[in-house]
Amino acid sequence: xxxxxxxxxxxxxxxEHETEALPGALPVGQFxxxxxxxxxxxxxxxxTAFTAPRHCNRRSWLYRIxxxxxxxxxxxxxxxxxxxxxxxxxxxxxxxxxKSAPLNDSYCPxxxxxxxxxxxxxxxxxxxxxxxxxxxxxxxKTKAGIAIHIYTxxxxxxxxxxxxxxxxxxIVPELGDICAYTEFGLLYVEPGDILVIPRGIKFKIMLINExxxxxxxxxxGQSFTLPERGPVGANGYANDRDFEYPKAxxxxxxxxxxLITKFFGQLYRAKLNHSPLDVVAWxxxxxxxxxxxxxxxxxxSVSFDHPDPSIFTVLTSPSFAEGxxxxxxxxxxxxxxxxxxxFRPPWYHRNTMSEFxxxxxxxxxxxxxxxxxxxxxxHNCMSPHGPxxxxxxxxxxxxxxxxxxxxxxxxxxxxxxxxxxxxxxxxTPLRQTNYMECWANLKKYFNGQP
Length: 450
Fold this sequence. Notes:
Its cofactor is Fe cation. Residues 294-446 form the Homogentisate 1,2-dioxygenase C-terminal domain. The active site is at 306 (proton acceptor). Homogentisate binds at residues 364, 385. This protein is mostly beta strands. The chain has two domains: 73-277 and 287-293, Sandwich (Jelly Rolls), CATH 2.60.120.10; 298-435, Jelly Rolls (Sandwich). The chain is built from two helices and 28 strands. It has helices at residues 389-397, 423-427; strands at residues 9-11, 17-20, 41-46, 59-64, 75-76, 113-115, 131-136, 146-153, 160-164, 168-175, 178-182, 185-189, 193-197, 203-207, 212-219, 243-246, 257-263, 266-272, 279-284, 289-292, 313-318, 325-332, 335-337, 354-361, 376-379, 403-405, 409-415, 420-421. The strands form six sheets. The chain has a nine-stranded antiparallel β-sheet. A six-stranded antiparallel β-sheet has the order 6-25-24-27-22-21, with no helix packed on it. It has a four-stranded antiparallel β-sheet with strand order 2-19-4-3, with no helix packed on it. Strand 11 (178-182) and strand 12 (185-189) form a beta hairpin. The chain is globular. Mean pLDDT is 93; it is low at 79-96.
């Protein structure tokens, strides 16, 4: 499948974009004419309230071959069940591996936790069948909090489509290139990119390589937006222009297909006799987008002390309290360390925010051993954590010369809600039960002398 060099994009975060796959498909001067060109239907898609302030109101007009309501009723796939061993399930039963908050069948110890990567299935498994929930917080019913999933796949979705009514999806590939076929167009995404699909948008994931794996943050709360720069000024961090939106693309396919949705914490399935990706043109501010993490402009200390990780925030979902995120998406990309008279690794700390980390490639400087690409760790509210003992010894005894972190890319989902692991995450053999041993050799150096 040769797509990477054939897809072009619209740029600019949150801009009102307009694009048409057929000339003249977009109406001029109004959104909902009495008759649309080409016999299309007009349909408004809103991912914020109608009355949301103009600067944060997100809606788009779609001009499609059939309106979305042209479908059969949904049928429930059964209550979600996380008690199934992920290594022994496949196909439709795999859907039981998806959980939503609140998690009523598990407990949440304050222990630091770390996991090895989930292996790629040996049976044919697409993006939806290969979802496993690792943790969640908040409450999907009140549109607050997040869920964290891992996807593993070895086949494309083909005639299966999905939309999530419960939350916005932030997809972070770690292994394998994928192409997201969405109602708005095509987005080619590879490790080092992120993909955001707003709540309610229909899509399917097609594999470019034989295998794919990555992380998903299902955001129940307010849509992701760019953080304010404050005293940094007008430039730096993630720049609006680097976010890419799809140009219109449509499927005019009259064949049976399956539409799966996640709604109110449960999965449903409906039959369609046509592809739901039949949008010929669209205009608006709510659409899926991608971003290359290598374009993030790092702001860092050039004097002393290690700054807070908030300086690496790419996207944020605000909460009820100003400056306190429902979830932040933070990255630790290649960068220089030049601070003087400073313990350069992340300091030891306890934090009211809860931190879930993943690794896309390379090594994370505070955890060079045991934290693998595709793996993950969880440090919850007020649970102490920091560099392992070996890293501490090197940091306090090493010569402070300019140092470049290369070929590395880690990230963090940080939330003000406690992040609760699922039953699967607590009991899977992939959990490293010896994780705390990386701090076991921290020595006592106190001698009463300054």
